[in-house]
């Protein structure tokens, strides 16, 4: 089926081909980050009244899922952390250069970092502290700088950044993808410029890989090393559009696609599927941590273990829940394999059936973020006014009564709809995969598992909210 | 340059902002440990402090939550009261009491509590 190539829209193509297009997208987010740093460090330390906490925990997350659902991974494209690239190119002249260790060239390291981040989020209540949120932003920039200065470009995005990998995972269900307009052109391409970069020297065209210091017009290639004609997934694609600019044959398309085509057909690596599975269970946990049953579980666990140490209790709950999730997923995938008559190791079974978790993970996070975003979307106005006023740029008195985008009684039905869509999408993925195995019974087993998980998620979202920083009530 | 960076980091580390002019007041809730719903807030200040107005704002500690705003009414020498303050959700609350004296000077006090 011939699908629309967004880059056939001339103004967009001209913008994407412009060498400063990414920079133009990064600047607004850099300004947001700077204002968040200022207000986080110097503003009032009250989350609903501080630009750092409101912009990061409400709007950034809300717009992120919206952008991924509507178009794609735009927030990686506009990531202000990659503005460290200029300083790191300078720093690289003086610093030793390392290759990213082979053992870490997968998603397991970033899975570990994501778990650590989620633990920190709950343990230090990052969501309620503008000061810690500002430190998180600053820390992110510092780590991006250090990794980018010491390792090849793209290492941070692909192997280290939990946020970027979160975006990659959710964008597997985005309606757009980078692809080759005509794969035959790529077959005769002498330099694979989309991945190797291009430099137009007086002596002729070369790749940046073979002539990194050559003088001339330079077009960097894909930093995460994706070769355009082989792209069948949005995983690791930051939508930086380097490939579009580097291809001398105008052969890169940004095509609309059916959002589920990737999850239905792509052959993911095991680590990538584990990341998707983990993000679903982590998303569930993130929502659970805001409702009363979570605190009841913590109280019971505290009595059982005889400790009130929050780090111990929190890690136990997280490890038990994600451990149980991973264990059940392996079991259900292995059972589905057995039913379909396929004999393969459990990890391969997860690799095949686990792709259904991608739309489910998206729905889980989207449902949760939608609640927060729609509840307090307009609060960005008074917090921005307050932060700018404090900076000496007077933009009027903040109106703290600015509130929700939709009536409160719409929120839960909206979350239900989002999760139902997620379940429907996941069942389509399972259906295609079951058909490939010629065993609908196998797909039905995994569907039943997903159905129970979604029912549990809906139960969690139906609970009254309890926004508490302390796990246990004082005795 | 390195010293400057170090100084900047130390300044950032130490820059947790302080609140404004402190208000010396005793704040009580009725019931003592409010649960979700209406509660009374009693604010006792030095009777010699001639206050014109006391505003009470309740914020939850998550971004995006809309504040609950109320005005306290004088209920005796140095005693101000907010009846029916609406703790509309479980969780951590920050109650900000802002008092203005007759010259317009502003005093503030913050009280944190958990509504179970």
Q: Secondary-structure blueprint of this entry?
A:
The complex is a heterodimer of chains A (475) and B (116).
Chain A: H1 10-17, H2 21-42, H3 51-70, H4 74-77, H5 85-91, H6 108-123, H7 130-150, H8 155-160, H9 162-170, E1 176-180, H10 183-187, H11 193-196, E2 198-201, E3 204-207, E4 217-219, H12 242-246, E5 252-256, H13 261-265, H14 270-288, H15 292-305, H16 310-339, H17 346-353, H18 357-376, H19 380-390, H20 408-437, H21 440-462, E6 466-467
Antiparallel strand pairs in A: 1-5, 2-3, 2-4
Helix pairs in contact in A: 2-3, 2-7, 3-7, 3-18, 3-19, 5-7, 6-14, 9-14, 14-16, 14-17, 14-18, 16-17, 16-21, 18-20, 18-21, 20-21
Chain B: H1 2-13, E1 25-30, E2 37-45, E3 51-60, E4 68-74, E5 79-87, E6 90-101, E7 106-115
Antiparallel strand pairs in B: 1-2, 2-5, 3-4, 3-6, 4-5, 6-7
Order of helices and strands of chain B: HEEEEEEE
Q: In which order are the strands of the major sheet of chain B placed?
A: 1-2-5-4-3-6-7
According to DSSP, the number of beta strands of chain B is 7
Overall mean pLDDT of chain B: 86
Main structural class of chain B: mainly beta
Q: Distance N terminus to C terminus of chain A?
A: 64 Å
Helix proportion range of chain A: 55-70%
Please outline the major beta sheet of chain B.
Answer: 7 strands, antiparallel
According to CATH, what is the class of chain B?
Mainly Beta
How many whole angstroms does the radius of gyration of chain B measure?
Answer: 18 Å
Trace the largest sheet of chain A across and list its strands. Answer: 3-2-4
CA-atom Rg of chain A in angstroms:
23 Å
SS strand fraction of chain A: under 5%
Query: How many domains is the backbone of chain B divided into?
Result: 1
Assign the CATH superfamily of chain B.
Immunoglobulins
**Total beta strand runs of chain A:** 6
């Amino acid at each position: 089926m011939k699908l629309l190539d967004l880059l056939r829209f001339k103004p967009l193509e001209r913008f994407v081909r412009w060498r400063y297009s990414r920079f133009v997208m990064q600047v607004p987010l850099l300004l947001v980050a700077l204002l968040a740093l200022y207000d986080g460090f110097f503003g009032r330390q009250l989350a609903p009244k501080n630009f750092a906490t409101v912009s990061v925990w409400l709007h950034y997350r809300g717009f992120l899922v919206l952008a991924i659902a509507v178009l794609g991974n735009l927030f990686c494209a506009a990531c202000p952390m990659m503005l460290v690239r200029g300083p790191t190119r300078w720093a690289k002249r003086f610093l030793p250069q390392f290759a990213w260790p082979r053992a870490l060239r997968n998603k397991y390291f970033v899975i570990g970092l994501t778990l650590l981040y989620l633990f920190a989020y709950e343990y230090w209540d990052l969501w309620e502290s503008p000061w810690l949120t500002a430190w998180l932003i600053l820390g992110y920039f510092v780590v991006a700088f250090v990794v980018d200065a010491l390792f090849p470009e793209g290492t941070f995005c692909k192997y280290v950044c939990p946020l970027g990998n979160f975006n990659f995972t959710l964008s597997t269900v985005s309606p757009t993808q980078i692809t080759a307009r005509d794969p035959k052109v790529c077959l005769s391409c002498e330099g694979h410029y989309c991945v190797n970069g291009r430099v137009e020297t007086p002596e002729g065209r070369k790749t940046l890989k073979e002539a990194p210091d050559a003088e001339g017009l330079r077009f960097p290639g894909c930093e995460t090393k994706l070769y355009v004609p082989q792209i069948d997934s949005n995983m690791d694609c930051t939508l930086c559009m380097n490939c579009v600019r580097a291809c001398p044959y105008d052969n890169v398309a940004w095509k609309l696609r059916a959002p589920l085509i990737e999850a239905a057909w792509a052959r993911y690596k095991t680590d990538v599927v584990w990341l998707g599975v983990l993000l679903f269970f982590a998303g569930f946990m993130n929502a659970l941590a805001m409702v009363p049953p979570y605190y009841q579980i913590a109280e019971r666990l505290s009595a059982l273990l005889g400790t009130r140490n929050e780090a111990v209790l929190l890690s136990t709950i997280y490890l038990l829940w994600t451990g149980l999730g991973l264990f059940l997923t392996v079991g259900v995938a292995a059972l589905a394999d057995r039913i379909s008559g396929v004999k393969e190791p459990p990890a391969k079974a997860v690799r095949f059936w686990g792709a259904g978790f991608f739309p489910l993970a998206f729905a889980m996070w989207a449902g949760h973020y939608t609640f927060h975003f729609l509840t307090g979307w307009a609060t960005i106005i008074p917090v921005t006014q307050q932060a700018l006023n404090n900076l000496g740029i007077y933009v009027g008195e903040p109106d703290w009564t600015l509130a929700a985008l939709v009536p409160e009684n719409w929120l839960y039905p909206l979350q239900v709809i989002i999760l139902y869509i997620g379940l429907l999408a996941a069942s389509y993925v399972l259906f295609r995969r079951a058909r490939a195995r010629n065993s609908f019974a196998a797909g039905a087993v995994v569907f039943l598992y997903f159905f129970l998980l979604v029912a549990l998620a809906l139960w969690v979202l139906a609970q009254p909210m309890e926004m508490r920083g302390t796990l246990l009530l004082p005795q | 340059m390195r010293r400057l960076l170090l100084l900047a980091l130390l300044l950032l580390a130490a820059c947790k902002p302080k609140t404004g002019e402190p208000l010396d007041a005793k704040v009580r809730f009725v019931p003592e440990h409010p649960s979700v719903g209406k509660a009374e807030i009693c604010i006792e200040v030095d009777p010699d402090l001639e206050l014109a107005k006391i505003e009470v704002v309740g914020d939850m500690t998550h971004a995006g939550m809309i504040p609950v705003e109320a005005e306290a009414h004088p209920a005796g020498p140095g005693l101000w009261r907010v009846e029916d303050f609406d703790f509309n959700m479980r969780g951590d609350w920050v109650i900000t009491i802002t008092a203005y004296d007759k010259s317009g000077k502003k005093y503030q006090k913050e009280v944190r509590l958990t509504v179970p």
